[in-house]
Amino acid sequence: SRPGTAARRAGRELLVFAAFLLMTAAMTWPWVLNLRDAVGDEGDPYMLAWTLWWDYHQTFTDPLNLFHANVFYPHRYALAFSEHDYGIALLFFPLFAAGLRPLTVHSVATFCGFAFSGYGAFRLARTLTKSYGAAWVAGIFFAFVPYRFHVLSHLHYLFAGWVPLLLESLVLFARARTRRRAAWMGVAFLMNALTCVTYFILTLVPLALTVALLATRLRLWRERAFWLRGAGAVGAASLVLLPFMLPYVYVRELYGFERSARELTINSPEALHWLVAEGRNKLWRGLGSNVPDGARHALFPGLVAPLLALAAAFVPPRLTGASGARGRRLLLARALDGLAILSGVVALLAAGYEGVESSVLSEFFGARTASHALALMTAALVARLALGYSASLGRGGVKNLLGSLRAARRGDAFALGVVWAACGFLGSLGANFFLNRVLHDLVPLFRAMRIPSHYAMVAYVGLALLAGLGAQRLAERAAAAGWRANFLSPRARAATVFACLAAVLLFELRAAPLEFARGAVDPDEVTLRIRETPMRGGLLELPIAGEQMLVHRYMLRSADHRKPLINGTSSFVPPTVDRINEYVRGGPIDTRLLDLMEELPASYLVVHASEIPPERRADYETFISQAVRSNRLRYVRSFGARSDLYAVVKTEPEARAEAPLPFPLAAREWGALLEEDPANMLGQFGEWSETVYRMHVASYGELPRYAEFVRDVRELAPGVTSGLAGQEARLRENLRRLASEWVGRERFRALYGRQTAAQFVSALRANAGLAPDGAARDGLAARLDAGELTRADALLEVASDAEFARRESNRAQVLLHYFGYLRRDPGDPPDRDLAGFQFWVNHLEQSGDRAGLNRAFMAAGEYKDRKK
């Protein structure tokens, strides 16, 4: 083409992309105002910001060792433990070169990911439909489909524009088998794989089906140029891609990283998850919230795009010209079709909102049950079948469903839309669809998949095409309609339809104002010190176990200090990190951690004391004290909000102490720790505190009060030293002493003093939620009557019942957090009732995330104010 024409085309494409950027600013508002530090959350975006930085840094520092990253030291190929995101980083190298912070580059890339995805779908639909209106509808849907907000914190899944661009390049090449188009197809194939290995794998099957479909429709099976040039382009791209894929083979062989069939099964959505709406969507929020695992698999694409896809299937390109009685029967048939579709939609939404109480839409659909809507749909279908699907409707009518599909002129857009939508939907079901199980068993590539729901992005490409095509059909019908008040030209009527559908899509898919976090974009003091400190080994940062959000931050900071980091987080975690997790997970920290640090070797340890849950600080202080006393760790100094730096003496013997240790070296008794901070009733002694909780519930059938409970727990503390082995015997002795005193209290004697042994045991078991009668009750009562047990022993036996302990564990944990962190009863001010307490109990029941409970209470304003 001529230079002027090429420039105009480039300018037009830039304007289209700019339009998607403007729509992104509106749909993700106010993200655009916070590009410096906006993140979906303070977890995976930190890791991905580090990934983008490492791709840039290593490309210009040591590109041959790109995959030997500065995390998970001393393991090799650490970049291949997860997505390498090189295709995304490559596009934003100029921002790194301009000096922008890694988290800022990640924020800009996330923002552009929406626009780029929309632009890719726009181009695909424009190529297949030759309609700008259809392209805008398809692009808007694919840019802002709710699932894209669901993966807001996973940049490589959000940044999916290369998927539709790859499909478009294949279509263009199939239509004209030129070297230029083959080269573009190779580039798109390469960039799709470099951007997201997951999408590279997931698009293989639909791409293969697309090749077969196009070869059949365009009669290319015997055309050598198609196969040779196509294979050459893909082969050349594969050669470039090979160095980026081989490390994944190496880590599989070195560390056994592979997804099991059980993992695939556990993470596989069901078809019902396609009725679960993403929580950020303002219109459909709450839909499907009662579906199990709905929060992990929110696949609902909205309602407008599927309805437009139905229009693509059933609305002919233009009016049939039927008139008179035949036209009226055809009109009635279409009205019944519409009624059946509408009632089916209501039935689906009513099922999705069933049991949901916090949504306006749930109230609307609550009175219109799924069964009523299904009954109406059935009646409409029966009437439709009775009326139509016969030759009596003539040429303009529709004989049956199969005839309907055949009657409308079908092009590549419809065929490819169906193929990709079907592949994506069936693929998203994971192990719940048999072909996915076969692929997992027979094709090694597919054993890298953990979350099959990412197949949804393939389905959305197909659905975007069908939605654009359906919009085109409706616009064509509007343009051809013979209106009496014909004040608009046919072209204007079509444009109005497209504009209205685009506006409806934008309204339906909106998430603004978008909730997001403000990330830690700048390095802290200890990071700056580490950057200036020479190291012979690696750096370990704690806490780690149960505090994965912190580990993400350690990875982000490693982009600032650039030293080898021992720990980290990724899709696969190497054995060293597993061992560290084991050594620091709950209770006293295992001294084998010191052995491991010297073995690796580690040069320095950073303990972020302000991030340690208060009930675990004694564990860390005991471990550090022992290591310092044995001259295996040397305290350097603290930075900022208590980030304590320690040198591993064996690795860095010349490191000097710059300040005294900020806590005593001697081991401390539990009683002193409780006096200092009631949160120490949790942590390594939490099981004993829970036993006291169950003693109270079994005795009185109600939650204990703060002052009374703290006093009782302190009765367990005498002679018990934190961090030392062999404390169980003393704790059991103290617990028996407490129980003996407990049963002699006035309140207890008033309730049970005159009861028989059988009545006493029945009452305790009833308070505990256990069967008040039966063999267990009779056996315990008999031992009481025989003098084998005291009432204190019986109380302890009921309080130690395994079923009782399991059922009350979450309530006990939440109550202990109120007592330890907030130092009050759950219903006390600023609370007005037990709603907050019950919220956290329900949260634990559903998630089991006790580390998240710690983080939430540590982040509470009430706790922070008390610490000041």
Give a quick rundown of the structure.
The protein has 868 residues and is mainly alpha-helical. The chain contains 40 helices and six strands. Helix content is 60%, strand content 3%.
Distance between the termini: 70 Å
**Sheet with the most strands, sense and barrel status:** 4 strands, mixed
Q: Enumerate how many helices there are, as a single number.
A: 40
Strand coverage percent: under 5%
How would you describe this structure to a colleague?
Residues about 320-325, about 390-400 and about 400-410 have low confidence and may be disordered. The termini are far apart. A four-stranded mixed beta sheet has the order 3-4-6-5. It has a two-stranded antiparallel ribbon with strand order 1-2. It is globular and about 95 Å long. By secondary structure, it is mainly α.
Offer a few descriptive terms.
868 residues; mainly alpha; 4-stranded mixed beta sheet; 6 strands
Q: Which SSEs are present, and which pair or pack?
A:
Layout: H1 3-27, E1 38-39, H2 44-59, H3 86-91, H4 93-97, H5 102-129, H6 132-144, H7 146-150, H8 155-158, H9 162-175, H10 179-195, H11 197-202, H12 204-217, H13 224-255, H14 261-266, H15 304-314, H16 324-352, H17 360-366, H18 370-387, H19 401-407, H20 412-428, H21 434-442, H22 456-480, H23 490-509, E2 517-518, H24 525-531, E3 538-542, H25 548-561, H26 575-584, H27 592-599, E4 602-608, H28 617-629, E5 633-639, E6 643-648, H29 670-676, H30 686-700, H31 706-714, H32 728-742, H33 746-752, H34 757-767, H35 775-785, H36 791-799, H37 802-822, H38 835-847, H39 850-859, H40 861-867
Parallel strand pairs: 3-4
Antiparallel strand pairs: 1-2, 4-6, 5-6
Helix pairs in contact: 1-5, 2-5, 2-25, 5-6, 5-9, 5-22, 6-22, 6-23, 9-10, 9-12, 10-13, 12-20, 15-22, 16-18, 20-22, 22-23, 24-25, 30-34, 30-36, 30-37, 32-36, 34-35, 34-36, 37-38, 37-39
